[in-house]
Design goal:
eight-stranded mixed beta sheet, single chain, four-stranded antiparallel beta sheet, 500 residues, alpha/beta, globular
Length: 500
């Protein structure tokens, strides 16, 4: 290459009068056009007849894509021809053609530059996060109040952790998770949820979704091809197991929890449950049903997967302890901070029976080499200092107030509505009297009014025949993410829509 500012034929190359001043030329091999260099290389390998066309197309593509930005000085025709191993005339032709088209510009003795006429398409990243669009009131369940996230305390913990974290902790972590976090979680879960929590059998995961998928892969590797899920239940359980190659069998509920008769008749040896606060019906498994479920698991040497998605949020009494505490060898327990802090943190935990621990840890290692170390250290610090307990108390007060506001608003605007399930969690089941229906009409009217609600039938795996025989309108109403005032306003909007 020749010195910057001088072409290979000795002509001084200066910035044309109307051009954007160029920055000093970088050292050879780092010119501004070097980033697009590989786009021009196919021209050298193209057949002789196509070589000129290939070079022109490559230069156009580099300008259009933004790889060659406006104001970039191109190498002289002799220089580029030598580097590509093509004739100088071919490069000169390409430069002249693209100059005529407006992609390039040149001046006598000033060299060749990328013009400003062509504009690269601006990269556009779509946001596919699930958010209701265009709603005046949103009662879709599953979302906490993200404004309650403890930003100040989290930021303080982050500064402390970054200052104290040893350098070696920034390497690849133990796939189970940082020992500090696993120890903190073991103490927290034993104290708050009554689990048998050995830190050696805790795996830090990105949430209940990853925990379920991990278990699905491990069970599939051991020959299991079918697993049970609650019906109605969380749609994600079936989808996550399906991604691991396991078919799900919908199992009905009764007034005490998962019906044992159909479970035994199904032939499955694993079942996903939400015993503390069944999603979506809101019931808590009875003591008898919990015992029967564990007896079944022992009799078939099976596994109960306990999704404790909101076990900390009980408003009328102390939460019922986790099922895992009764038989840690037949129950895999999972939870996360998605409802207590924020789902965007992607932090959760999985407690596995000893017989599955090794396989789950190895699968976690091959899946992602472990969870981010700084995030784990942050949560450990947050739990150890008592900040997590304070956050739970804050959320409990807020969500209890919002549930009360929902029940009161339903009584006022929809007299005769029955709110079922225990006083817990982030959603409630409301059965509106049949006079406000039929259900299809009710849902169309509320949607037209900009009120987002979900019927209980949306969470049924079957055909919903049993639900359709009930003239009442059974809704799953999420309230945690709305203030009491907005809850009351949303229920009023729903009532106005139906009465109109």
């Amino acid at each position: 290459m020749t010195p910057s500012g001088t072409s290979s034929d000795g002509t001084q190359e200066t910035t044309p009068p109307n051009a954007t001043p160029a920055t000093p030329a970088p050292p050879p091999g780092a010119e501004p056009w070097a980033a697009a260099w590989e786009l021009l290389l196919p021209a050298a390998a193209a057949p002789a007849r196509a070589r000129g066309r290939t070079l022109r197309e490559a230069l156009r593509a580099a300008v259009r894509s933004g790889r060659l930005t406006p104001g970039t000085r191109l190498p002289s025709s002799r220089e580029l021809a030598a580097d590509l191993g093509v004739s100088r005339g071919l490069v000169t032709e390409a430069y002249e053609q693209l100059t005529a088209e407006g992609y390039l510009r040149s001046g006598r003795g000033a060299g060749t530059w990328v013009g400003a006429a062509a504009r690269a398409a601006r990269p556009h990243a779509r946001d596919l996060a699930p958010r209701p669009a265009g709603t005046r009131a949103d009662f879709v369940p599953g979302t906490p109040d993200l404004s309650l996230f403890p930003r100040a305390a989290w930021a303080a913990a982050q500064r402390t952790v970054l200052a104290e974290l040893p350098h070696h902790a920034l390497g690849y972590p133990d796939p189970r998770g940082l020992p500090q976090l696993r120890t903190a979680l073991a103490e927290l879960l034993a104290r708050r949820r009554g689990v048998v929590a050995d830190p050696e059998r805790i795996v830090v995961v990105s949430g209940v979704a990853q925990a379920t998928t991990l278990l699905g892969f491990v069970l599939h590797a051991r020959g299991m091809r079918r697993a049970g899920v609650e019906d109605p239940g969380s749609p994600q359980h079936g989808a996550l197991y399906a991604s691991a190659g396991i078919e799900t069998v919908a199992l009905p509920l009764d007034e005490e929890g998962l019906a044992i008769g159909p479970l035994k008749a199904s032939g499955v040896r694993s079942v996903v449950t939400t015993p503390a606060h069944q999603f979506p019906t809101g019931l808590a498994y009875s003591a008898r049903r919990r015992a029967e479920l564990l007896d079944w698991a022992r009799s078939v040497d099976g596994l109960v997967v306990e999704d404790d998605y909101d076990g900390d949020f009980r408003y009328d009494r102390a939460p019922v302890g986790a099922l895992q505490g009764l038989d840690p060898e037949h129950v895999a327990y999972t939870g996360s901070v998605s409802k207590s802090l924020a789902p965007g943190l992607r932090l959760g935990w999985l407690l596995v029976p000893e017989s599955l621990a090794g396989a789950v840890v190895e699968r976690k290692r091959t899946m992602d080499l472990g969870h981010p170390a700084i995030d784990q250290a942050l949560l450990a610090h947050f739990v150890e200092r008592g900040d997590y307990d304070r956050q739970l108390r804050r959320c409990q007060r807020a969500y209890r107030e919002r549930r009360d506001a929902l029940v009161s608003a339903l009584e006022e605007h929809f007299p005769g509505t029955e709110v079922s399930g225990i006083a817990a969690g982030l959603h409630a089941i409301a059965a509106l009297p049949g006079r406000y229906g039929p259900p299809d009409r009710f849902l169309k009217l509320t949607a037209a009014a900009g009120v987002a609600v979900r019927p209980l039938t949306d969470y049924a795996y079957g055909d919903g025949a049993e639900e359709s025989a009930d003239p009442r309108i059974r809704l799953v109403l999420g309230y945690a993410h709305r203030s009491p005032a907005r809850i009351r306003e949303g229920i009023r909007l729903m009532a106005d829509a139906v009465r109109s």
